[in-house]
Design brief:
By secondary structure, this protein is mainly alpha-helical. Helix content is 61%, strand content 0%. It contains 10 helices and no strands. It has helices spanning 30-50, 57-64, 71-74, 78-88, 107-124, 126-136, 140-166, 176-195, 198-203, 211-225. Helix 1 (30-50) crosses helix 4 (78-88). The longest helix has 27 residues, at 140-166. 37% of the residues are buried.
Length: 232
């Protein structure tokens, strides 16, 4: 399961969505930039439609309406174009998190806003998140990337929890890192179940996920677990 969790905006650069080591330098001409952009857009559509394993490079070039040989001008293989697809989604997958609870901010309100932003972005990118889960099972570099990125987010949320503990907002008897792993993982799993698996469940007649109910639930569970004032 993808362990992506809400990010906070602080002085540390947020971990990237894609393994940038796989990406080439962008083209310098407008025509080249347009062709590359068309390939990336087409790749996302085909990946999300057919899955990583069943996608062929000819499917991508056909969707992009460009010559098959043009693909290799910009990308070496499926792994490289997938990294580009993930990079395109990076801005939409950045989220505020617990580290933004500063000064007189209401910790519960900030936590709720963070969870809402994260879940909304996950919902918009559900097919891409499912794709990343699939490719991580077969491509070691993406699996290692996902693990490192998830660990980085968990460490950042752990620092946010430690800050809340120092301010007397969160239970000081819990280990910040363990709490972050448990709570962040909970939100990630619930998001996966709600937005990736829900399509199959709805086809079987189940009711669609209540988005606001999901936000409320995960936020209350976070607050209750950390024993926020008024949630003990």
């Amino acid at each position: 399961m993808d362990t992506t969790v809400p990010e906070e905006t602080d002085s540390e650069a947020a971990p990237p969505v894609a393994p940038f080591s796989q990406l080439r330098e962008p083209p310098t001409t407008q025509r080249g930039a347009r062709t590359r952009a068309a390939l990336v857009k087409a790749a996302r559509k085909v990946f999300e439609r057919d899955g990583y394993l069943d996608t062929r490079l000819t499917d991508i070039t056909k969707e992009a309406r460009c010559a098959a040989g043009s693909f290799y001008t910009y990308f070496a293989n499926k792994e490289e174009v997938l990294a580009a697809v993930l990079l395109e989604a990076q801005e939409d997958m950045m989220h505020p998190g617990t580290g933004r609870v500063q000064g007189t901010d209401d910790p519960y309100a900030v936590l709720e806003a963070s969870n809402r932003a994260y879940l909304a972005a996950y919902k918009r990118n559900a097919k891409l998140m499912a794709l990343l889960e699939q490719v991580a099972q077969v491509e070691p570099e993406f699996r290692e990337f996902r693990r490192r990125r998830g660990d980085a987010f968990i460490r950042r949320n752990a620092r946010g929890i430690a800050d809340l503990q120092a301010r007397g907002v969160a239970d000081r008897e819990v280990d910040p890192m363990m709490a972050s792993r448990a709570l962040s993982g909970m939100v990630s799993v619930m998001a996966y179940n709600a937005f990736v698996l829900s399509e199959e469940q709805e086809q079987e007649g189940d009711a669609p996920v209540d988005f606001e109910g999901l936000v409320t639930t995960v936020t209350r569970l976070w607050a209750n677990a950390l024993r926020f004032p008024g949630h003990r």
